[in-house]
Amino acid sequence: MPPPTWIAQLGRGLLVAAVALTLGGCANGELPGSHALFLYIQNQPGHSKDAPNLLLAEDLELQSLLQELIQRYRRKNPQARIHVRSFATEDLGPEIRLRQNSGLGPDLVISDVRAAFELHEQGLTAPVRIPSARLGHISANVIRPFEHNGALLALPLSLQPQIACFNRGRIPEAPQSLQQLLELAASGRRVGLPILISDLAWTASGLDPDAQALLLSAIESDRIPTAQEQGARSALGDWIAWIRMASLQQYVVLTDSNDDLYTQFLDRQLDWIPCSSLNARLLQKKLGSQFGAAPLPGRNPGQPAAATVKLMVWSFGRHSSEMQQKLAKDFALFSLNEVSQKELMLKTQSSLPINTQVMVPSKSSQLLAAMDIGLEHGILLDFNRRMLMLNNEAGRLQALIRQAILGETGANPLQPTPPTPGQPTKR
């Protein structure tokens, strides 16, 4: 069985753009007269804070990308000296706060969008103004949610759609609808599903579009619609009823964490799971030719699910000098040019570009094709999707889902419980 830290290796795909642009070792202070930039990297969940800063040494492909990008940026700016430090997710905010109080905070931070939002909310990062001309080839739909008063609260780097991963030895063709997915489980194929709302929200695609929109609104507000909100209440009830019904199937397994899903999938205990594109690449390496990837199934065949799309983003420090902020912007924008974005996509095959000039080679890669479709129909987890992005495990709706799965509610927990025989009805 792979050790629990195997997820950390997947984080390498997330960090490639930042790490691959690293132009110096760790340092404690700016060198006089140099163009010094201090970059902090968030270690992804599962990445031990005691591990080395960079986990790229094992992967020759990523090492090659690292060298290529270093050389390319050095040709552009040979004076740049970029010093990198990495921190565990839970330590990133406290470390930045501590160092900013001493005037030694970062100029640039690369993290997932959730961590970036939390840093922004804590006042640990600053908005920056970037001329629109320098963002001309960047997808407006990706940039727009980060705009505020003419500035950017963060700068997106790459996109990681949620897709379906399956074992071709057990499932020759991926299910194309939620009904087909349940039929697959009924036939004895083992289906794994996560419990957390942000990873399970794609199953709401079984509702009609209007009901799905009402449900997403309820998720964003993390509240149970009242009896007067019949449409939203009905949508939520139908969705939870579907989850409960699926959980009662013999060959459907629901887990508290994605780590459990991936481990069971690699151990051949599960045949089909939803997975982040970040994780799909490692699953593909482990399963080889038996690995299959497809868009997540939706309401009907030919209608892929509206699954979540995670982002990696750049955030900017609050106490950078004018020169450091200029270098930080230039450095981040360098990672968004056509060549850098193409290299990131092709070498990792775990992220899609935000540069619209980069074409996704869907015909030559089943994994990238599934990711591209997932992105087309997906829901971006940006600063406007706070509840989905923050993955509130203690939320009201999350508690309702857990109760339904544990059998503590009826088939539809939002419908009145019928009276038992002989019990008078309430008037």
Major pleated sheet = 9 strands, mixed
**Structure classification:** alpha/beta
**What is the count of β-strands?**
13
- Estimated radius of gyration: 23 Å
Order of helices and strands: HEHEHEHHEEEHEHHHEHEHEEHHEHEHH
Strand content: 15-25%
Task: Give the oligomeric state.
Answer: single chain
Tell me the CATH superfamily of the largest domain.
Periplasmic binding protein-like II
Task: Give a quick precis of the structure.
This protein is of the alpha/beta class and 427 residues long. The protein is built from 16 helices and 13 strands. It has helices spanning 6-19, 60-76, 89-101, 113-121, 140-143, 178-186, 197-200, 209-221, 230-247, 258-266, 277-287, 322-334, 338-348, 366-376, 386-390, 396-405; strands at 35-43, 80-88, 108-112, 147-148, 151-152, 155-167, 191-194, 252-255, 272-276, 291-294, 308-316, 352-353, 379-380.
Key attributes of the depicted protein:
427 residues; alpha/beta; D-Maltodextrin-Binding Protein, domain 2; 2 domains; nine-stranded mixed beta sheet; 13 strands; globular; disordered N terminus
Protein described:
Strands 1, 2, 3, 6, 9, 10, 11, 12 and 13 form a nine-stranded mixed β-sheet that branches. This protein has a two-stranded antiparallel ribbon with strand order 4-5. It contains 16 helices and 13 strands. It has helices at residues 6-19, 60-76, 89-101, 113-121, 140-143, 178-186, 197-200, 209-221, 230-247, 258-266, 277-287, 322-334, 338-348, 366-376, 386-390, 396-405; strands at 35-43, 80-88, 108-112, 147-148, 151-152, 155-167, 191-194, 252-255, 272-276, 291-294, 308-316, 352-353, 379-380. It is globular. The protein starts with 5 loop residues before the first helix and ends in a 22-residue tail after the last helix. Helices cover 40% and strands 16% of the residues. It folds into two domains: 6-159 and 309-360, Periplasmic binding protein-like II (D-Maltodextrin-Binding Protein, domain 2); 161-308 and 385-405, Periplasmic binding protein-like II (D-Maltodextrin-Binding Protein, domain 2), CATH 3.40.190. Helix 1 packs across helix 11, helix 8 (209-221) crosses helix 9 (230-247) and helix 9 (230-247) packs across helix 16 (396-405). The protein has 427 residues and is of the alpha/beta class.
